[in-house]
Amino acid sequence: MFNTIKNALKTPDVRKRLLYTLILIIVFRLGCYITIPGVDTIKLAEYMSSATNGMQGLIDMISGGAFSRFSIFAMSISPYITASIVIQLLGMVIPSLERLVKEGGEEGRAKINKYTKILTIVLALIEGLGIFLSYRTSGIFVDTSFLTGFVVLSSLIAGTALLMWLGEQITNKGIGNGISMIIFVGIISGLPTIIPTIWNLMFQAGAFSTTGLLTALGIVIGAIVLITAVVFVQQAERRVPVQYSKKVVGRKMVGAQSTHIPLKLAMAGVMPIIFASSFMTFPAMIIQMFISDIASQTGFWASIYKFSIATSSSNVPIGYSIANALVYLLLIVGFTFFYTYATFNPAEVSNNIKKNGGFIPGIRAGKPTTEYLSKIISRLTWFGRSIFSNYSYTSNAC
């Protein structure tokens, strides 16, 4: 692995892409410390230090600390992710969008990208307005006039648009997927704060604690095992052999060919987890927009609120956490199967194989091939999603 990295760094183009990615990441991290105009930083620090809302911690973790500082990147790239998911889902139910995705080519992808950007701005406008309305009574703004609201809302939308542009630039001129890179950097930026927590577990009240040491070792080893399992599952694939018979191409007879269909264990990746998390926290965001002190109240809406934030908060009764975990798991499984079968259609793949004169050894072409591929996809999805679901919920709970 180290030799591969060393050889890659010797290539001028790779070094250039790495440097470009690093510069844009630095721009992203600097933007996380630029507070929005009209925010009282002293009152903001006091409010955030006394806030007990677990949902704030979850959003702050994804944004790399930008939310707690109320910076221009406070909303992070979440509106773009939501817009991408919505466009993909609409592409499955709207025939014109489906044709644009499958048959549009480069022009079709450009139009889909344009629609996604427009929807991102709309969602950023709605989310930014919700954030301002939720926190205008907290005293963190200099005043709550229309001008202040306009500046705050414009700054949040501009920050999201800038992150969207940075992600595109990293994808086109840097290393890896830009949006995923921004999310990754935002999450790992909080890792240094975990070191004092681990240290305090081992040395409680200035004295060494054996129990704390075992707990710290358990946390570290558990995290390593989970990350290793996720990487292993993400890289693993099931190769379904496909045999093509001889056929005439022009004036030549092309011989039989053997190939395979690579099927990932977790085709949907993290998309179902992100979608399920958004679905679970959405009620809390809406309720807090209308009832700012909902965390200290009781009743039906307070119960819905506690249920919604149970994944990211330890200040709720155990019953809410158990119910949240069960619903969260069911949503992940449901979205996984929906997303997997939407991106990989066994019937369509079976027809393409049959049209090109191919077949899976031991399986008849047509409906038996479709059923065979569906059975494989179902088994792979069940196993791969169980690993991702456990990792996701453990990470959120920590």
Detailed description of the structure:
By secondary structure, this protein is mainly α. 69% of the residues lie in helices and 7% in strands. The protein has 16 helices and seven strands. It has helices spanning 2-9, 12-31, 41-50, 54-62, 78-93, 95-103, 105-135, 146-173, 178-188, 194-202, 210-235, 271-290, 300-309, 318-343, 346-355, 367-397, and strands spanning 203-204, 207-208, 237-244, 247-249, 252-254, 257-264, 358-359. The strands form three sheets. It has a three-stranded antiparallel sheet with strand order 6-3-7. A two-stranded antiparallel sheet has the order 1-2. A two-stranded antiparallel ribbon has the order 4-5. α2 (12-31) packs antiparallel against α8.
